[in-house]
Amino acid sequence: MSNQTSDWVSRSLNSVWHPCTQMQHHETVPLIPVSHGRGAWLYDHDGRRYLDAISSWWVNLFGHANPRINAALKDQLDKLEHAMLAGFTHEPVIELSERLAALTNHKLGHAFYASDGASAVEIALKMSFHSWRNQGRSDKQEFVCLQGSYHGETIGALAVTDVALFKDAYGPLLRATQTVMSPDERQAQEGETSQDVARRAAADVQRLFEQKADRIAAIIIEPLVQCAAGMAMHDPLYLQLIRDLCDQHEVHLILDEIAVGCGRTGTFFACEQAGIWPDFVTLSKGISGGYLPLSLVLTKEEIYHAFYSADVTRGFLHSHSYTGNPLACRAALATLDIFEEDNVLAANRERAVKMAVALAPLARHERVRNFRNRGMIWAFDAVDVDNTFSRRFFANATQQELLLRPIGSTVYLMPPYILDDEEIAGLAARTQSVFEQTLAEARRC
To answer: Distance between CA 200 and CA 206 in Å, rounded?
Structure first.
């Protein structure tokens, strides 16, 4: 480590409280000060590079310093950097809202903007509760989430999160939530298919709705992949069954597409693969191409009209200062342009086939279980490893020019949508090499 890099590390540790981090661990696993990014790669101050195989926490869809997104932002900077969205509007937010509604075939619209995924979840929860109240059904105050679900770490979002590591410390601050079986296909019993697991999980929801639907406002689900639960994947049938149950029992369906939307599962919205639309959908992360904080909620016409009134108290009085920021919206518009101009979804299908071939030896490894793929997400579970596996794997990966950050014993890849053949082959080979190295360390101990 050069003197310059050591200085950056020291200054960061003395001034920055890093997210989702036990800071003491950086006594043994040093921070990596990033100098710049280009394409799929991040570079440090010593000239080392790292293939960003998790898209910098799942946000960077088209690589770092993307020329087309850069150009759009430079153009917007000379026009309008920000204006309040209360009482004012502007071209980027209008165009983005129209284009997103069109991507849902106008099943959803009326985009409401925030800055981050947890905020979008908060908005959807509040909208659901408030719309029921505006319809004279104020008893519908409860929410339902899935086992292992993750929807963010603000107080409202954390209430519908079922990850003890994040939730337990703040339990006294949170509203009680109903938790139902996850449709995680890894739970298949002998002779069961993923669709059988989906039916069992939907039956659990049905039992709850039959008992308590008059008090339940909404159920919230990450469609197709529960990411923080270790990339738990489920069959699209589950979403079809839950949509039917929500219709039968008058419960809102919120689909959290913050991580799985924007093409990550193979379609722009994950729920398209089930042929259904929710009452609310949340987007963030990749919607701005990984450039600027932006999130949003799309909802149905009837929910929007439940708030439409001369009575101020019936309005949705939620806001933050940077709602609908023009720069963030312009980055999102450039991101949508790339999807259209490069036929990204079709190109990703070809990349996924190549990645599957490259990863095949790892999928057959004797210490790998449940190797799985959905769109541009690959994951597998390492067996017979200890609770230091994730940190050791991350450290070893950086030594082999990879940014990979396992979730517990689950190794996953969520790379940007720009990898060429050489990068695909290198990513697969190095992932296997890091896996072997991390297992070998454990054996030596």
So the answer is: 10
Give pTM, 2 decimals: 0.96
Cα separation, 252 vs 126, whole angstroms: 12
d(CA 396, CA 389): 10
Give the ranges where 176-325 is alpha helix by DSSP (H).
Answer: 194-212, 237-249, 301-305
Closest CA to 273 of 284, 261, 259, 290: 261
Token representation of residue 327: 């720069």
What integer pLDDT is reported at residue 445 of this predicted model?
Answer: 56
Q: Taking Cα atoms as reference points, which of 143, 291, 157, 316 lies closest to residue 228?
A: 157
C-alpha 174/C-alpha 158 separation (Å) is: 7
Question: Do 439 and 383 meet the contact criterion of CB atoms below 8 Å apart?
Answer: no
Residue 123, Cβ neighbours under 10 Å: how many?
23
Burial of 169 (0-12, 13-18, 19+ CB in 10 A): exposed
Phi and psi at 235, nearest 5°, equal: -75, 145
Rounded distance between C-alpha atoms, residue 161 and residue 259, angstroms: 15
The pLDDT of residue 8 = 83
What's the confidence (pLDDT) of residue 11?
A: 87
Q: Which residues contact 105 (CB under 8 A, 6 or more apart)?
A: none
DSSP, collapsed to helix, strand or coil, labels residue 101 as: helix
